[in-house]
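Hi V.,

You were right to ask for the full record rather than a summary. Here it is.
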Amino acid sequence: MSNTLIEFFYLLAAVLFILGLKGLGHPRTAVGGNLAAAIGMLLAIVVTLLDQRIVGFSVIIGGFAAGSIVGAIMAYRAPMTAMPQMVAVFNGFGGGASMLAAGAALEEVLAGDLLEPLGTQFTVSTASAAIIGAVAFSGSLIAFAKLQGLISERPILLPGRHIMNAAMLLACLGLGGWLVMEPTSSLPVWAMGAVATVLGIMLVIPIGGADMPVVICLLNAYSGAAAAGLGWSLNNSVLVIAGSLVGASGFILTALMCKAMNRSLANVIFAGVGAVAASEADTEDVYSGRVKSASAEEVAMLMDGARRVVIVPGYGLAVAHGQYAVQDLTQALEARGVEVEFGIHPVAGRMPGHMNVLLAEADVPYEKLKEMDEINPTFKQTDVVLVVGANDVVNPLARKSDPSIPIAGMPILDVDQARTVVIIKRSLSPGFAGIPNPLFAAENSLMLYGDAKKVITDLVAAFKES
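Predicted structure:
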């Protein structure tokens, strides 16, 4: 295959990537956008591997078969609650592949008869791909372990971690400088990969579950940047384009998520929010004698007389697989003439758009999903707000300027301004920020304890009987 034809197909793949990214901007075009990006990636892989200077057909077919089987099994077996974990794993695979490919490329070049020293572009991009890819790989595995519950979701704050991280970063930069100055051995690349792998673990361990949406965005950006670096190393235009798209979109989304939380990226990475849980005394001060519980029948009577109901979903809804029950409740309410909308906080769940995807799976109309800025002014005209498994994103303490409050200044959904707030939770346990929620003890709040799916199912039955 000629170089001109290869570059043409690479350009076509790049166009498909861009169209795919654009399509993902709206639910109606998301499926087509995802398909366009997948076709673009398939085209890029096929064109690259069919270049006989790389591998033979047997390796190509074997790789496609193995990858397709593993990918299909993972996609079909992963429940909706595991989507954040799946995204984290894919980020890790991308970063790890970039690191290994960069090292292999250097090994291949050094194994040949070099007529002249390696260029700066090659060595710098190889070092960049190795460092960033290794951080993305190990950091993503830690994110997966936290989300999957294999290790504690709360921040793990090791003493002297900042000094250790700085030392490892300097070591990586030093090894990178060694490779650039004396590119005669692959040892610096593999050493960089090893040190950066530990660095990735150290960077993500101190981050709590509440900040996982931001971390996933950042790791996604890292994997894209690593792929772009590898593209410069291999002089592969489609890798540079695809990696740049992923990296840029990941960094932009990271910035947007931080803005939604009114926190800097440095605060997310280094603050360790949620490392210290609320004491029993603090919890008692907030809740003592003021929390009112209700039954499904009582809440059904409230909703029967309501004209407007807003449902605020959180990660607890995903854990309980209660999205279909929520849709049943929505249809039952609308059959009685009740206006129903959903208030979506940007960082609800464990990845960007988690609640949107969860509700879309149950065929909840996208038009009913309202972003925070749009839904907040309407809470004063809302009869009942049903908070399902959300905590920190509706905590009024966020409005305070007290720096001792981990979520101080974070924009929240103003559900407490509604006439009545019903909170579905298993218990009064704090959210990932580790602080109590005064909303649970507010005058206009009722607690409906239990598993979200079962509670909502009981609520639907009681509402239909009322």
